[in-house]
Automatic annotation (TrEMBL):
It comes from the Bacteria. Residues 1-22 are annotated as: Disordered. It comes from Rhodoplanes roseus. Residues 1-14 have a biased composition (Polar residues). This is Antitoxin. Antitoxin component of a type II toxin-antitoxin (TA) system. It holds the Pfam family PhdYeFM_antitox. Belongs to the phD/YefM antitoxin family.
Length: 88
C-alpha cells in the first residue's frame, strides 16, 4: 500500500515517512510530481535481487555452473618472474 508525501511533509516528519515505508513504498513529491521513493531495506534488497542488481560476494560465489550470472576470467600476469618462497 503506497503512501505519498510532499517534500515538505517528508522534511517535517521523517519518522512518519519511516513508519509508512515499513508498510510499503513512500512516494515523495516535489512540486506535485513524484521525485523520490523511500523503501525499507528489505523491500530494496528484494527489488535489487529480482532485477539482477545487487548481489553479495557470497551469493555470487555460491552460484555454479550454467546458472551463474557472471563470468570470471582473471587476467594473466605477464612480465613478472615468480620464485618459490624460501622458508628456511
Amino acid at each position: 500500500m503506497p503512501t505519498t508525501m510532499t517534500s515538505r511533509e517528508f522534511n517535517q516528519d521523517t519518522s512518519k515517512a519511516k513508519k509508512a515505508a515499513a508498510k510499503g513504498p513512500v512516494f515523495i513529491t516535489d512540486r506535485g510530481r513524484p521525485a523520490h521513493v523511500l523503501l525499507s531495506i528489505e523491500d530494496y534488497n528484494t527489488l535489487a535481487r529480482e532485477s539482477g542488481g545487487v548481489m553479495s560476494l557470497a551469493e555470487a560465489v555460491a552460484q555454479s555452473g550454467d546458472d551463474a550470472d557472471f563470468d570470471f576470467d582473471p587476467p594473466k600476469l605477464e612480465g613478472f618472474s615468480l620464485k618459490p618462497a624460501d622458508f628456511d
